[in-house]
Amino acid sequence: MTGAGHELPSADFYDYESLLTDAEAAKLAQLREFLAAEVAPYATGWWNDAEFPAHILPKIAALELAAPDRRSFSHLFTGLVVAEMTRTDTSLATFFLVHHDLFVQALIDFGSEEQKARLLPDAVSLRTTGAFALTEPDHGSDVAGGMVTTAQKVQDDDGTHWVLNGAKRWIGNGTFCNHMLLWAKDADTGEVRGFILDASLPGVTRSKIENKIALRTVQNAHIVLSDVRVEERDRFSGVGSFGDTNKLLRHSRISVAWQAVGQQLAAFDVARAYAVERQQFGKPLASFQMIQAQLTRMLGNASSSLALMVRVAGLQDRGGDGDATMAQVALAKAHTTAAMRETVSLGRSILGGNGIVSDYRMAKIFADAEAIYTYEGSHEINTLIAGRAITGVSAIV
Fold it and tell me: Does 148 reside within a domain?
């Protein structure tokens, strides 16, 4: 893009990508080429039709960007991958996170050697897909203590198995996935257990949640479990209580904060291009002071969010006691999503009436931001987690 006769700067205004290794920079460039050719021209159509592009999964797998070993990439690189995917299509990035950061990573963190050998190769290569079934119809933020889905342990002549009953809601990838990492309360002990649920088992009913205004390409499902029999070999032996999932949920929350960065970069890209090209009163919108102020505010929000996430990635790379804490992650997610909400709103305003139709991309960006603001810990819950850490007093009931 050019303006006033020269090349305009990147939305990465402070050149954080220069912190990547040469190999990582090349891999990110490869991802951008893929997204530009295979996703960007079609993403709005998929979103309008609420259809998931299953045909591109083998091509995503071929990029070799995800688990199990992250290919020795830095956390900064993996975060920028999420941001870049989101910048092109939030729904596709959300699929990627649910499958890789939740389902596949759970297999790595909690799965037995037998479970890993049986399930990981196909999951990593996207020959099979996974979902993360935690949220329930009546329990979201309080699901850890309020979970009503139960798992009853049964011993009979065939050995040990579990019988699951209950319901899950808002399960991304849930309509088509092969397996779910499903959480249920042990009917005998009250502890939360994790199970690898074959989604085709008798007693599993899946229905698509319709009429969404955000992440329309993502296939969210309402799941009903009626006396579903799960073998002992499909229980996560590495999960003894809900507390065991903190590492998994902390990392997925970091990824969603990176999504908030990507969403802002997308909004800035679209708004700046529109402002430079759109003529009003005989001159470009970009020549008006208020438009420049709005664009600068958008870039400032995106840049501060990116800077915060670069620091979080640095803490992750240190690992051990130096790793990012849940409170630091919660503050990052709360701050970046609040900034994102303002950024996409400013972008929508710059496009005027064209900002409310998906043809110009901004309406899609604006709507999808609402999902990012809420999932992986709502803005309010993340704020209170950070507040508890800085005051020593819990405001969460």
Answer: yes
pTM above 0.90, yes or no: yes
- In this structure, the strands spanning 283-284 and 279-280 are antiparallel
Amino acid at 12: D
Provide the 10 A C-beta neighbour count for residue 396: 11
Q: Is the dihedral of CA 342, 323, 72, 59 positive or negative?
A: negative
Whether 25 is covered by a domain: the verdict is yes
Tell me the per-residue pLDDT of 124-166, one tens digit each, with 9 for 90 and over.
Answer: 999 999 999 999 998 877 877 788 999 999 988 888 999 999 9
* Coil vs helix vs strand at 122: helix
Confirm if 239 and 247 have CB atoms less than 8 A apart: no
Name, in order, each residue with C-beta under 8 angstroms of 56's C-beta and a sequence gap of 6 or more.
Answer: 38, 39
Name which of 125, 270, 249 is nearest 181 in CA terms: 249
Beta bridge partners of 198: 179
- Would 396 be classed as within a structural domain? no
Contact status, residue 108 vs residue 134, Cβ threshold 8 Å: no
Q: Which domain holds residue 66?
A: 2-124
Residues with Cβ within 8 Å of residue 332, at least 6 apart in sequence: 254, 257, 308, 309, 312, 324
Mean pLDDT of 346-353: 97
pLDDT digits (tens, 9 = 90+) for 160-178: 999 999 999 999 999 999 9
Q: Could you tell me if 236 and 261 lie in one domain?
A: no
Please tell me what DSSP assigns to residue 37. Answer: I
Do 250 and 380 fall within a single domain? yes
For 53-83, give one letter per residue: b (16+ CB within 10 A) or e.
beebbeebeeeebbbeeeeebbbbbbbbbbb
Residues 6+ apart with CB under 8 A from 237: 110, 112
Kindly list the distances between the CA atom of residue 309 and the CA atoms of 29, 37, 324, 352, in Å, as whole numbers in the listed order. 20, 28, 11, 31
- Closest listed residue to residue 119, CA positions, set 133, 138, 106, 136: 106
